[in-house]
């Protein structure tokens, strides 16, 4: 059985392509257990470096941004996503366009 670690979450964040986002659940699945989605959120909230580990690219299963984004709140997350040419409408991104597979 795989073990959960914050560092594994951070390492995966660095693999998200420019112009794409990922959900908490997808990250958990990539780590080996879909049930770890909440733990992924906890790891993101403890992220030591938002530039090195781009947690702004993580949204919920509906594509919604996080009001608890650790590096400046939802407006900062929106600005960082838009800087990658990701369209944000009503605090939400279209996962069909911007989500990773």
Uncertain stretches of 5 or more adjacent residues: none
Output the structural class: mainly alpha
Q: What number of structural domains do the residues give? A: 1
Spatial strand order of the main sheet: 1-2
* Number of distinct helices: 5
Strand content: under 5%
Please compute the radius of gyration using only Cα atoms.
Answer: 12 Å
Shape: globular
Output the helix-strand order: HEHHEHH
- Based on DSSP secondary structure assignment, what is the total number of beta strands? 2
Question: What would you call the quaternary organization?
Answer: single chain
CATH architecture: Orthogonal Bundle
Helical content, roughly? 25-40%
The CATH H-level superfamily is Winged helix-like DNA-binding domain superfamily/Winged helix DNA-binding domain
What is the CATH top level name? Mainly Alpha
CATH topology name: Arc Repressor Mutant, subunit A
Distance between the termini: 23 Å
The profile of the biggest β sheet is: 2 strands, parallel
Mean of all residue-level pLDDT scores: 95
Give a short summary of the structure.
With 101 residues, this protein is mainly alpha-helical. It is built from five helices and two strands; from the N terminus they run H-E-H-H-E-H-H.
């Amino acid at each position: 059985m795989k073990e959960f670690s914050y560092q594994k979450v951070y390492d995966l964040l660095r693999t998200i392509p420019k112009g794409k986002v990922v959900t908490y659940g997808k990250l958990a699945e990539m780590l080996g257990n879909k049930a770890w989605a909440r733990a992924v959120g906890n790891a993101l909230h403890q992220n030591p470096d938002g530039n090195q580990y781009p947690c702004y690219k993580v949204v919920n299963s509906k594509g919604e941004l996080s009001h608890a984004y650790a590096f400046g709140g939802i407006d900062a997350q929106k600005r960082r996503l838009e800087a990658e040419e990701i369209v944000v409408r009503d605090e939400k991104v279209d996962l069909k366009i911007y989500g990773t597979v």
